[in-house]
Fold this protein.
Amino acid sequence: MKSVLYLITVICLSIGLFASSIQASDTEVNFSEHIAPIVFNNCTSCHRPNEAAPFSLINYRDVQKRGELIMTVIEDRYMPPWHAYSKNYVFQDHRGLSQSEIGLMAKWMDNGMAEGDPSKMPEMPKFTEGWQLGEPDLVVSMKEGFTLYAEGADIYRNFVIPLNLDEDKWIKAIEFRPGKRTVVHHSLFYFDTSGDARRRDEADPITGYKTMGGTNQGTGSLGGWAVGGIPKLLPEGLAFRLPKESDFILSTHFHPSGKEETEVSTVGFYFSDETPTQRFTRLQLPPAFGALAGVNIPPGDPNYTKKDLFELPVDVKAFAVNAHAHYLGKSMKMTATLPDGEVTELLTISDWDFSWQEQYRYEDYVFLPAGTRIDATVVWDNSEDNIHNPNNPPIRVHWGRESGDEMGSVTLSIVPANPDEFDQLRTAIRTHTHVGQTRAKIQRTRNNANRTGNLGEGQIQQLIKKFDKDGDGKLSREERKAARTAFGR
Ligand code: HEC
């Protein structure tokens, strides 16, 4: 009897212990010790006063009162915002919660969001105020403020900042500082030596001008900034060339904040005195932001797709990748098929969001041997299910530079593994673009010919002129083959 009692006591005790140990581990999940570190490391860089996110997440109350909303956005992986994935390569500054962090947040919410002991809170991370990369070599600002309304559609606007440089410069980094962080979402940087941007600016009665993109002669891309972005130096030995007398162009995307605001952005340039030890270039597929790809998206099509590919003529090292499309963009992918047949993923964006146009830097250079085939796919969604579709009902959309038009491409930033092979690499990329131009031209000719039922005599003559490499007035087998390749047949 005694022993039975003893047994029961032991059982009761251990059940009690067991139960209390469950309780203990549940109450153990508390804000101060477990949740604050997750929030501080993943959310507070944007969710703090005077930053872009609409509210702060810097203390218990901030998080607790939005519990359900926060759970929704982290389970959907809508927050922290991050769109770039690769099975094979790691991106710098990757933002994202692990499954176990999400699990811990869920447990905390389910158990009533205990605060815990505030003295156990970690310190708020120290965010560098002011210039993140130290004092720049040149600081410039927009000449005039741009005033945006309190409420309404997002605004895209380009601003011209004359730099008045009397010599070419090598840029190691550009740091962008919005005047009003609550309204500026992202900004892409260009230089312009053609004067075209100035003319557009002068022709427009208010500050800046409207057309998007910088695909003209005499212009070049210099990267960009998006909310939460950390300015970075280019890898060792690389620099952007900034031609003398360039104007600097900011192509900025604004979210109205509910309050009228006037934006004056400031930009800091970090120059290098040393000539870069090697040059880098960009492989954009399809080239010219898709201008040559015949982008012509029927209304209602949820999966309009364009593909392009390029075979590397020399060994290459990739250091960054980015994608571009407008509102109808849906997904992008770039893969590398290595000479041994292995396929690696350079970039996958499965949920394109126009708001997050970032350049993604690889943690380490990605080595791609000569003979590697790079494939890019851009998919657009012109159905009414695309919540970003500006047209309801959807309408046909073509390639163009206005935000209501579409563009689409994936761009890989690369150096040849052997710097002496730079010209060979660049020539191959230019040839690829040129073939695209020719193909686009032939396509137009063919469309016209199809309309009349046949190729006109003049068009045939044009084709012969273009592909008759040996100049004998007719197309040999080889030349016909080249023409067919250019036709994409
Ligand atoms: C890189 C900046 C950035 C980071 C990091 C970030 N956010 Fe956000 N967050 C934003 C911006 C900007 C918005 C408002 C616009 C939007 O929805 O894109 C926002 C909106 C939200 C919203 C409101 C969504 C809605 O539709 O009402 C919630 C909730 C949120 N964030 C939670 C979080 C949490 C939790 C984290 C960390 C796990 C986090 N965010 C990390 C920038 C960020």
The longest strand covers residues 316-325. Confidence is low (pLDDT under 50) at residues 1-24.
